[in-house]
Amino acid sequence: MIDLAIRRPVATAAIYIALFALGVTSFRLIPVEDLPEVEFPRLTVTATWTGASPEALEAFVTAPLETVIQQVGGVEKVVSVSEADPRGTGSNARIDVDFERETRMEFARLELSERINSIRDELPEGVAPDLSEYVPAEFAEEEERLLSFSLTGPYTFARLGEIAEEEIEPFVRGLPGVSEVSVWGAERREIAVELDRGRLEALGLRPEEVSRRISELSAPRAPGSVELDGRQFAIAVRTRALEVSDIADMIVLTRPDGPVRVGDLGQVRDQTEDPTFLWRIDSQPTISISVYRQSGTNVIQVADAVKAAMTELGATLPAGVGLELTGDQSENIREQLTELRLRAIAAAIVIFIVLTLFLRSLGAVLVVFATIGFSVLTAVNFLYIGGFSLNLLTLWGLAWGFGLVVDNGIVVLENVERHRRAGAGPADAASRGARQVVLPVLAATLTTAIVLVPFLFLQGELRVYYLPLTFAVGFSIIASLFVAFTFVPALASRVARMRDSAGAVVDPGLTTGAAGSAPVRPSEPFYIMGYRSLLGFALRHPVLVALVCLGSLGGSWYLFDEHVSRGSYWSGFGGGGSGITITISFPRGAGLERTDELVRSFEAKLATIDEVERFEAQVQPNYARMRAEFPDELEHTSIPVAIKDRMTAYSYGFSGVDVFVRGYGPSFYGGGSSPPNYSLQVLGYNYLTVQEIAEEIASRLTRFSRIRDVDPNANSTWYQRDREFEYYVEPDREALAAYNLPVQQLLDYVSRNVQGRPSGSRIRVGGEEVRYAVKVDGYREFDFHDLSDLRVPISSREELRLANVAEVGQRQVLASIRREDQQYERTVAWEFRGPVRFGDVVRDAVVDAMELPPGYRIEKSRYGGWTTEETTQMWVVLAFSILLIYMVTAGLFESLLAPFVVLFSLPFALIGVFLIFFYTDATFTRTAFIGTIMMGGIVVNNAILVVYHIGEVRKRMPTAAAIVQGTLERVRPILMTTLTTVFGLLPLVLFAPSQDQNIWNALALATIGGLISSTLFVLVAIPVAYRYIVARRI
Predict the structure, then answer these.
(1) Which of 342, 559, 692, 882 could crosslink 918 through cysteines, CB 3.0-4.6 Å?
(2) Is the Cβ–Cβ distance between 979 and 475 less than 8 Å?
(3) Would strands 90-99 and 75-84 be described as parallel, antiparallel, or unpaired?
(4) Euclidean distance between the first and the last CA atom of the chain, given in angstroms as a whole number
(5) Are residues 979 and 353 in contact, defined by beta-carbon separation less than 8 angstroms?
(6) Residue range 919-953, pLDDT digits in tens
């Protein structure tokens, strides 16, 4: 292939012109999006039970659903979470069903749907399970939502909702690339049926019976068909309501004295629903409009089309109504593309300067430099053919390869130059120089590519995160290998004019074998002379070298272990925004009105501050989020800081509520306890036994003075700290028997009186789908004290208090019940006030002292860490990567010992990784771990070049001299490849406001740190290790 490329320059040029044209075409056609399309072999079942606690939901809804789900073919794992609704209206169940990878998901979905439908009648009334595709939390918002708009104006929420749903939504939905348009915050029409409690009791009716009869108005009837003139016609019976009055005239019960209609039992009103979400901008009511794109479409093109249409539509809206863009997913990808373009230009300039300083030939530099363009375009071709999109992960993979793809070209070109200096002609030098380094370059490329192979076997969300990145990097370096052995030698024999360190030209036009072909004897560069002295000292003092290496590794690990934070996920794909953000959290059940009252007080404060350009508030029951923004000219002044201090001072005045103020410096958090930093998960098959074990662990933990806030009912995430309570009624059977009152009669009576929750569905009224709700009067005022004092009739003349025949009380329950494969999981969380090392000792001591029944286990974790499954996968990937590197190098050297010398570069690389994360104060995230594994495939390249070349030189001179000569001849290509890779990645981290800003920083930091330290130690320690490990045994 090498000789063919040299002999057929026209054909070689034609191939690369074609690759260039195909790459440009693929770049224009490939879908552009923020994040990769997500597709899991997983389905999600959700269900809501209004008015129920998580324990009741788990027992009567989640558990039966899990039982039938386990019967579906191909099910691999079932994980369920039953948790309280944050609005305090009931509980929600979420069941994630994982299938085997080869499962046909369309058939699995159909079978699962049939299984769920088979038990719908057995579930509590009002519970309707829903089946949907699974979307990870990290991608839930960004995956499809493209644009968000706010609709504001001096109108009610109802009027703004009409404008959004009748004028904007239909218009935008018809645009190309738009899949869905959602309107949030609008007050929707509702038919409210408020029943009189006394009339219901007198007639022995329940609210559910009234709701069931109303639902018949929209229930279609298909009694059969009739025949006419030899043709069959279906009969449809329609009982739809034309007006609200039709609902009031609906007959519920027929008595001897006449029919009982809905209107006889209470009032029927046409009104708007009680709001569950409020959004205001500058204190004005605001409606949110979200636009979703179709998968596989170009983010930027669809966003531009929608924004242009919205601008045109905004001019036709009523006076005073404003339509403002509040969220744009395309801006993120635009900014990242612009940033990547600028950083790529900066990296290219730096690489160009480095190559020019070393090669001292513009032609040679352009030859190597062109490998970047051809390698990247070839990789884009592969990505397009493979069905990948151009997203932030694949873009990073291409950018990460900027320095890597020139490495192979540098090694080949430098070796060609060395043969030219030895007197070989252009074609002969290009051929011999390229062929001589085929094995080491191939091995070095394979070690870089081979560490990517284990990523193909990742499961779940890890696979989605890193598979596109893996393919982008792999395609780039494989393309660079092809370019290095075809494009580089072909042009090196005709274009490159190289200079030695003194500036003498090595002319490719010189011929081989002539008198004028005497080798050029360049002078030795200064860095070679300095390195020669250092290498000689290291070979004479091997013990000192070993001590320095071990001391550096141990010291760097100490700094890393003690001072570097670890995290599970990256901080985000984009940078943080400006402005001041205020979040407010109330205890569960606080309600929308109470939360909104506090928010309005903050709004009143912000409205009086002239420097605030814009502020918005989003209010939900128990939770609110506010944001204040400033003009650009004030962003970098002290004014936002002073305003933040004012908001912080105002937040001090509230108790019983969590207020979090952040932006422009240190954040303020008030109103709650510190989040836990330790947790244990108790797993087993019996709910009560798991609870007893958790309580025993909590009891043991409270004996330690450094432990605070032990919670045996904790949630699995630290930010869900609010505890869940339920009110219970436990009948006293003996007391009921004394009054001859059946238990079921008592429970039915209590249920009729506490029906404060709306119940109902949707019916068609006058051609419009309208929600209806059946309620009992007085439901808003009914509280816990009313429940205790509830008068229960035991005869026509006698009644007694509920507290006399039942225990009525309050108790803490789990806010979230998690099960995996029908095994319960309970979390015990606490705060340890002291060093992490001591906290681990205390935790381990408590766990070791526990005696567990068979089938039960305790899992350890700290908040913010990886899951056990993720940790196992990462270590398996690391182990396989090291094994594959060893196998590749063993095959290259035909030796079992030489690969160990190469692998010595890995711990040397870790020194740099530890130190760079320590000095930059960056978080070592899961992405950094991935970067460290990928870095392992890069840092061994230099060691391979050194060890392989020493072995070649040993064939013609003694071992000691061969070690020195072989290492010296590889110093320049090693320095060039290291500097080009480092400087190629450096722009990705230099201009970031924070080292935790995005995914690129963690990967780039790991690679830069590891490559710098490994290069320094490889050039010193590897020759010493070769001399005392390999040379003495051969």
Answers:
(1) 559
(2) no
(3) antiparallel
(4) 34
(5) no
(6) 887 777 767 777 787 777 778 888 888 888 888 88
